[in-house]
Amino acid sequence: MPATKCLAEVIEVKRLTHDVKEIAFKLIQPDHLNFKAGQYIAIEVTEMKDGRPRQNNRPYSIVSPPEEREVIRLCVNLVNSGPGSSYLHKLKVGEQVSFLQPFGYFVLKTEVPAPILFVATGTGIAPILSMIVHLIHINRQQEILLYWGLRSERDLYYQDLLAALAEKDPLFRFETTLSQPSAAWQGARGRVTEKIAKAFEAGENQEAYLCGSLAMIREVRTMLMEKGLPKSAIHFEKFF
Ligand SMILES: Cc1cc2nc3c(=O)[nH]c(=O)nc-3n(C[C@H](O)[C@H](O)[C@H](O)COP(=O)(O)OP(=O)(O)OC[C@H]3O[C@@H](n4cnc5c(N)ncnc54)[C@H](O)[C@@H]3O)c2cc1C
Fold this sequence. Notes:
22% helix, alpha/beta, binds flavin-adenine dinucleotide, 12 strands, 2 domains, Elongation Factor Tu (Ef-tu), domain 3, 6-stranded antiparallel beta sheet, globular, 5 helices, Rossmann fold
């Protein structure tokens, strides 16, 4: 079956950092979306190939939870003047965007409330935040631990939101760790892999969801298997 084409209007653009924006889209056609936390949409983008413009699609994970069906949000990192991220970063309120329906298998797998480890680097937080907000919304009573790796203080965002979620649900904990912080930084330092190597112990029926660069996913996956997680309990989405 061909993928459903959707149309939406930009209703809000938030600059989160020097190179990350959150963009909110109000659905026009259809007027709402049914999706699972962790899925992505494929945005139609024009890119130049051999000197000619060509239509292409770029995947972007939905950062908002599936409970919000009429407005969806993306969180996009501007990359090397790439066509997809540049297009999204230039969008203004009132402009319309075409994309293909939500896709993807990076979604919550277990029905039973087992402990979950989430690991994100950069905008890999997008599908993971959607899952965390969803899990807290449905009040599943399970331990949720998030390690999020960013580079330095100027790359921080969503910290207040995560702190508010941790306040609301005592079973949710998070640590944002900076790989290149300034000397003044009081929070966690180092890469997510170092945190997991030192601090993480797998619980019974532990599940893990990883999203970000391939290098991080490979390293964390190996580490988690060494800590006793079966391959089938480690789910991941590679952004690049
Ligand atoms: C399933 C899926 C979901 C995704 N969801 C998101 C999302 O929610 N937010 C988001 O910002 N990106 C996301 N991406 C990445 C996104 O699809 C594009 O690859 C990215 O925006 C670069 O596209 P571009 O056209 O701007 O540049 P391109 O010319 O296509 O890529 C330029 C270079 O940037 C590298 N790159 C791609 N993404 C990143 C990144 N995030 N950080 C650093 N380098 C990168 C690529 O490997 C490439 O070498 C997702 C990718 C996948 C596969």
